[in-house]
Every structure is written in structure tokens, then in C-alpha cells.
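W.,

You were right to be curious about this one. When I first looked at the sequence I had no strong expectations either way, so I just let the prediction run and decided to look at it fresh. Below is the sequence, 57 residues in total, followed by the output.
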Amino acid sequence: MSRKRSIMSDALKEEIAKEIGIYDTVQQEGWGGIKSRDAGNMVKHAVEMAERNMQKQ
């Protein structure tokens, strides 16, 4: 079974990882090295960014 492609671009994921302070872990261990809580925080942060962008429009 194939994996789904990510909805978020790698650049966006890296930007969010830097903002929430887990980018060092991503660099050292890859995306599989982050904790599930951190992954959830990334999604939460992405949703907040999208909501702010929608309010601007």
C-alpha cells in the first residue's frame, strides 16, 4: 500500500518546526523522530496560520 503525499509542503513544515522549536530534531532524526505531541502542535499551528490568512481575505 502506498503512502499518501503530504498536504503541507516541506518548506511549510520546516517553517513551522522552526517556530515551535523542533527543527533540530527533524534535522538529526528526520520527520519520524518527532513526538506525536509535536506533530499535533504542527497541525494546530498550520490551522491557526490558515485561519489568519482566511481572515485577511
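Here's what jumped out at me. The radius of gyration is 12 Å. And, maybe more interesting for your project: The helical segments are 10-20, 23-29, 36-56.

Coffee later to discuss?

I.
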